[in-house]
Amino acid sequence: MGISTDRRKELKSQYNNRHPNKGIVSWKSKGRTWVMFSNDAQADFNGTSFQLKLGSWPNKELQKAYSEDPESFEWTFERELKYDDNSEDVSDDLKLMLMDYMEKNPDAKLMKPIKL
After folding, report:
1. How many Å apart are CA 32 and CA 109, to the nearest integer?
2. Is pLDDT of 17 > 90?
3. Which of 2, 15, 61, 78 could form a cystine bridge with 24, CB 3.0-4.6 A?
4. 108 and 33 in contact (C-beta within 8 Å)?
5. How confident is the model at residue 62 (pLDDT cuts 50, 70, 90)?
6. Which is it for the CA torsion 48, 51, 52, 53, positive or negative?
7. Cα–chain-centroid distance for residue 104?
8. Looking at residue 84, what DSSP letter applies?
9. How far apart (Å, rounded) are the C-alpha atoms in residues 68 and 10?
10. How confident is the model at residue 66 (pLDDT cuts 50, 70, 90)?
């Protein structure tokens, strides 16, 4: 038995109307920090965690550190971007926020390559 059409519409509406946390996220371990900007912090946490546990994260340095000592890692939502409309493109704001974070934390490394 599948999901009814009404229930499917309700779930789709809930998903489309959610307000995910956007901003800068980091993974920290033993004095090292890797950062990225996120359009959905919780989804990025879940996806990154899965890939790190699987051993398939594209940043080999981060993956190696995680594989050697996963218990030492801490995930942090560093900075939040306030926004009103979820359909609004805030990617430039997130990139600027990341550049500012990197300037203030010069030892932080990018979790994955991006075009700034």
Report:
1. 8
2. no
3. 78
4. yes
5. very high
6. positive
7. 19
8. S
9. 44
10. very high
- Domain coordinates of the chain in residue numbers? 21-110
Which uninterrupted H or E stretch holds 110?
A: strand 109-110
Q: Is 41 helix (H, G, I), strand (E, B) or coil?
A: helix
* Interatomic CA distance for residues 27 and 74, integer angstroms: 6
pLDDT category at 1 given cuts 50, 70, 90 is: low
Alpha helices (H) in the chain, listed in sequence order = 5-16, 41-54, 60-68, 91-104
pTM of the complete model: 0.85
With a CB cutoff of 8 Å and minimum separation 6, the contacts of 21 are 38, 40, 41, 42, 77, 80
The architecture that CATH gives domain 21-110 is 3-Layer(aba) Sandwich (3.40)
